[in-house]
Design brief:
By secondary structure, the chain is of the alpha/beta class. It has a single domain, classed as TIM Barrel (Alpha-Beta Barrel), CATH 3.20.20.70. 45% of the residues lie in helices and 17% in strands.
Length: 232
Amino acid sequence: MACDLILALDVPTREDAAPLLRQLRGSLRWVKIGLQMFTAYGPDYVRAVADEGFNIFLDLKLHDIPNTVAKAVESLAPLPIGMLTLHAAGGREMMVAARAAQQQTKPGLLLLGVTVLTSMDGPGLVEIGVAATPDAQVSILGRLAATAGLRGLVCSPLEVSLLRNQLPADIQLVTPGIRPAGESGGDDQKRIMTPAQAARAGASYIVVGRPILKAPDPAAAARSILAELSTA
């Protein structure tokens, strides 16, 4: 299974993003727009990045009552997006409602169930009342999302092999928490792997931000990661 690269466009402003996108056009296909940029600039910015020739992963991690999430999916459907996230912890009913709305309004959109954030570890789960280990909780939520009809999940690379052994082969696994070999963490990601390790484990997509955004040559950094994926 081939693994592709998604750039996490986590920068302060669209002015910061513009030169990066110009440099990266042609080097990678996918860009993730998260809460920071979407909250600042809204749907028009999603359209603007898509007009630059990128596929859009809209990472909003929707989590609310079923009807509200379903209506949010309907509202977002006209946008040129290929992936959209919601929290699997919202439960089966919420995910079923979201899936129904997606099928009715944008059949080609891949809904991704977020399992356990890569910023969380065992003690962090205990603090919010979850006694399960991260991998056990990812397994619970991943299986729940699949039975609710979702065809994709977001998990750390450490749980990819586990989910590949438990879920249908066509489930798409998107993994943040990626650091190229030799990169120190220095941020809020706790459960990490290199691109090659994640690809070998069975990731469908890896999400990379800082190692590309802060590289002296972002396009070269992206091409290096893609080359690593192609030989993994």
